[in-house]
Specification:
Largest sheet: 10 strands, mixed
Helix content: 40-55%
Number of domains: 2
Shape: elongated
Number of helices: 15
Distance between the termini: 26 Å
Radius of gyration: 35 Å
Number of strands: 14
Strand content: 15-25%
Structural class: alpha+beta
Order of helices and strands: HHEHEHEHEEEHEEHEEHEHEEHEHHHHH
């Protein structure tokens, strides 16, 4: 009799054991399929979020290394400007992962022919700044007047974080672009413009912080901001958001002095995919002429990690589930098949005594388990999506709860995409993590399940049958009780 036909009859004759094997195999397949589907859905959601968010990397002074160097030299730790050569920053703009960039340089100044927006605390605060400590360009210095205007030098004003986050927007005129480099043009805030009857086309004069020179700028744009600043901003006029004036970074460098010509405070590179950030940094450290003993590339991917962190944990957990269930499933089914084969020693002995080939006997056991596997795969393909959705939602909910429990208060000092190099009292941007996971069974998931299922079936039947078929027919029959 053909061994395939014999296998089908055997499955039908042993209904109880066959149903048990189908049930166990179905459970294994459903768990494996759920793990694969959840992993696929999490990866797709993460990819979508990554591409929509993008990512940026900031080139700036490595303050930690600077302070360590000063401490090692035994000197007093002093914060000072270390400008970045524009030529070095421009090297990175040609990298294939960079889809955009911006250069920043900042300074303080004093309004000459217009009045900045002040409050009642400004006079007292400015006296403290002149006689004590004041913030100048993002660093603490002693004995330096602060000024009442902050100048934000940029290459492209529309890619400044405040404009990208819609906290600020141009309401009249235009943005600053790279065509304004070396020009004396400016963008002023709406409140400052209204208080001084300024409009596009007017000119304003600003005195440098060292009071040595004055510079005149033509207003080419008026913007409006919803930023309210912080307590320090309310105490110092220069830190009030409405007193921020955007100018080309080259204009800021002129106000700082000749030693800052051809330099910037920081540069921001917008990466086409956050997944390429590490590759971009590694390539820059190997190939560029930037002195990474003084400067560093800081990956500003905190928002992306906040959004996809729980998803990545779910995907990782699902991947582990697939591995564990595959291994455990093969072992469990192998033990069941082994017990079934041992109960059928007499049947095998008779067939072998009648001249049946051993490979056909092994083929019969494999066909029997394959029949079970095909039925289990069909059932799991139908029910897998429901289970995968339930498991995926539960896993994501648990991860979100863990993220919320373990969340730490946001730091108030962090890297800033340009400007003074640090957030002056502004919290790091926070976004809600992705809290939904749409799980669908794809053809790739079914294909992988089929491969895993058949692998489990073949191994669980092949290994036990080989151990039994090492015996001779006479030995099998004589040992039969």
């Amino acid at each position: 009799m053909n061994f395939i036909k014999r296998a089908l009859l055997s499955v039908k004759a042993r209904k109880g054991k066959s149903l048990l094997q189908i049930f166990i195999f179905t459970v294994i397949c459903v768990l494996v399929l759920s793990g694969l589907a959840i992993q696929t859905a999490a990866n797709k959601s993460a990819d979508s979020a990554r591409k929509s968010l993008g990512g940026d990397v900031t080139l700036q002074v490595d303050m930690e290394k600077m302070m360590e160097k000063m401490r090692s030299e035994g000197g007093r730790v002093r914060m000072q400007r270390t400008p970045i050569p524009v030529a070095a920053a421009e090297e990175l703009t040609t990298y294939p992962d960079v889809k955009g960039f911006n250069f920043y340089s900042s300074a303080m100044g004093t309004a000459s022919d217009f009045t900045p927006i002040k409050n009642e605390e400004d006079t007292e605060a400015e006296d403290v700044g002149k006689n004590g400590q004041a913030m100048n360009g993002g660093f603490t210095v002693r004995g330096s007047a602060m000024g009442d205007i902050s100048l934000q030098g940029v290459l492209y004003s529309d890619s400044v974080q405040e404009f990208m986050d819609s906290k600020s927007k141009v309401i009249e005129g235009r943005h600053l672009t790279d065509s304004d480099t070396d020009k004396s043009v400016a963008m002023v805030e709406k409140t400052l413009a209204e208080e001084n009857d300024l409009k596009v086309g007017d000119h304003i004069t600003i005195q440098s912080s060292n009071n040595e020179n004055t510079y005149t700028f033509e207003i080419v744009g008026i913007y409006e901001t919803t930023s309210t600043g912080d307590d320090m901003g309310m105490s110092f006029a220069a830190l009030n958001p409405v007193n921020k004036i955007y100018v080309p970074y080259t204009a800021v460098n002129k106000m700082k002095g000749d030693e800052f010509a051809g330099t910037i405070d920081s540069a921001v590179y917008y990466i086409n995919d956050p997944a390429n950030i590490d590759q971009f940094i590694d390539t820059a450290q190997k190939d560029s002429s930037i002195d990474f003993e003084t400067f560093k590339l800081d990956a500003n991917d905190a928002v992306y990690k906040q959004m996809v962190g729980p998803l990545e944990n779910v995907a990782s957990f699902s991947k582990n589930v697939v591995y564990l269930v595959t291994i455990a499933g093969a072992i469990i089914l192998g033990l069941i098949v082994m017990m079934s084969i041992r109960e059928r020693k007499y049947e095998m002995g008779v067939l072998l005594a009648l001249g049946e080939k051993k490979w056909k006997m092994i083929g019969q056991f494999i066909v029997e388990i394959l029949v079970v596997a095909i039925l289990a795969l069909g059932i799991s393909a139908v029910s897998g999506k429901v289970v995968a959705n339930q498991v995926g939602e539960q896993l994501l909910t648990q991860q979100l709860q863990m993220e919320e429990t373990n969340a730490q208060p946001q730091s108030f000092m962090g890297p800033r995409a340009g400007g003074m190099g640090m957030r002056m009292g502004q919290p790091v941007q926070h976004v809600d993590p992705i809290d939904e996971l749409s799980v669908n069974i794809t053809s790739e998931d079914l294909g992988m399940l089929t491969i895993i299922g058949l692998l489990i079936a073949i191994l669980s039947a092949l290994l036990p049958s080989l151990s039994v078929l090492r015996l001779q027919p006479k030995t099998i029959l004589t040992k039969q009780d």
